[in-house]
Specification:
The protein is an all-beta fold and about 190 residues long. The protein has strands at about 15-20, 20-25, 30-35, 45-50, 60-65, 75-80, 85-90, 95-105, 120, 125-130, 135-140, 145-150, 160-170, 170-180, 185. The chain has a 4-stranded antiparallel β-sheet with strand order 1-2-3-4, with no helix packed on it. The chain starts with 15 loop residues before the first strand and ends in a 6-residue tail after the last strand. The model has no long low-confidence stretch (mean pLDDT about 85).
Length: about 190
Amino acid sequence: SAIETSDILFAQSKQIEVHGDYALITCGNGFFVVYLGDLPNSVSVIQEMVVDMDGDGLPNDVNGLAINQAGTVVYIATDDVGGSLIISYEFNGATGRVGPILDVLDTPEFEGTTTRMSLYEPLERLYIPGRQGTLTEIDISDPTHLRLRSIWNDGYTGEMQDVRPYHFPGHGDLLLVSKNNEGFSILRPDPAP
């Protein structure tokens, strides 16, 4: 088996997304890109991204990550007490290289992400399960101008663990959201802007 680690990024990997020959993996203080084109013999880290948005030397804890199908934008969600962010980066799906930041959404309503997030391209939205029973919905129709659409909470105070958007014939677009200790919920995406 092929194994690769990062020399500068902390452990606690949370999410892996694959685009073509590249895998992007979140870590305790950023994310990194791994080239998979030489599997099964080897893999290699081609880029490491430490995320320290306020420049204080204490990196942001990155949990959620998503890549659009075109391989042009990477989205990450941080999980920091008092400063959780959603960030879009330029991405080159042909080379696996992450480019400059396109936008940063810093809104006090976003409490951070526990583990994963999902991108649902038919609606141009990100769905981010969070702490305190929240599900955050972000408009990504313009990756250079991320916008908060809604934050869902039904009174549950535990952690949301995962969210999967699907189009169900006869029922339309629905979100299946797993809760840490209360099973799951089925939600309809917010139709209002």
